[in-house]
Amino acid sequence: MNEFLRLFQRSLRPFGYDIRRRHACNLLPFKGIDPVPALDRVRKNFEHNGETKRVTAGNLDLLKIIYRTCLNHQRNLNAHTRVTAAPLVETVERCFLSLVSSINAALKEALAPQIELLLLDDHSDPDLLAGVLKIAAQLQCPWKLQTTESMGQGASLHQQFALARNDDALYYFCEDDYLHERRAVYEMWAFYRQVFHATGKHLVIHPQEHECLYNSSFYPSYLILSPFRHWRSVSDATHILFMHAHVVRDYWKYFENTKFVGNKKKRKLGSERMTTNRLFDHLPCFVPLPALAGHLQSAHVLPPFFSWQELWVANAPDKHPKTTK
User: Fold this and answer.
1) How remote is the C-alpha of 111 from its chain's centroid?
2) Which of 58, 139, 242, 260 has a CB 3.0–4.6 Å from the CB of 205, allowing a cystine?
3) C-beta atoms surrounding 24 within 10 Å
């Protein structure tokens, strides 16, 4: 950009306009509201005039999915707290089947990543895990089962992030009670590539927004358009995240304390607010609109306009063949 254009650019910015090369990224600051630090961070991550190429390493062609589960008879007794009111083992099987279906659908796309799945199991009772393993046999990608080194939710969370820390691949860290749309895996991967190639920087994706954003925590967001849907910038998410392994490596201090999740004395240290939400001081986080997955933990954490009932019916294990390989 020559000096005249730079001067012209500075003169236009106070009026809400900017000059960019064609296809370069630009998010204008909000007008008429007080500065919002979270929005400023997102805007700066997109600020790129296309003149100098940002060099950010990272293999985007390999996607590794870590699916954490813990099925035991004691936990299964608490199924009445779930959205579905079904036994927990049934909820997990349907959620896992929805993810398997989404993985297989992604592999059929003309442009698709290589996908691997790790079933990271927290010492489940074998009779309850058996159904999940039968569903895993339907995967059209490599997969394996691994038992966690230590028992407990915090130990499982910490181990999954540690597995990614020294790798070079995209990762989707997923829990066993998220019900996925069929295009969830492909669209998260495609949007990650879209933003990465446009900005030269990594990002974070959470597969859903939460109902509480509409009734208790209001804040403005940027909306980005992909070929399939809009994506909203957010400032908070759970530990269910789609990101690159280099993000885990470079910001490990925000993952270390996830080991305290479930620890009665130190659980606050392991909360999202004290751990992975701090990533968003450095990288933008986006959620899809409408959602690509829904957390079936309780009604108040489900995303708006998410037809989980239809997905629930569609992912009945007895409606699918036991193997496709």
Assistant:
1) 20
2) 242
3) 16
Which pLDDT band, with edges at 50, 70 and 90, does 25 fall under?
low
286: DSSP letter: E
From CA 307, how far away is CA 274, in angstroms rounded?
31
pLDDT at residue 325 in the model: 41
Residue type, 172: Y
3-class SS at 189?
helix
pTM of the model: 0.88
> Residue 4: CB partners within 8 Å, gap ≥ 6?
none
Q: Give residue 319's pLDDT.
A: 63
Three-state DSSP class for 224?
Answer: strand
pLDDT at 197: 86
Pairing state between β 230-234 and 223-225: antiparallel
Residue position matching structure tokens 């490599």: 142
- C-alpha–C-alpha distance, residues 51 and 7, integer Å: 17
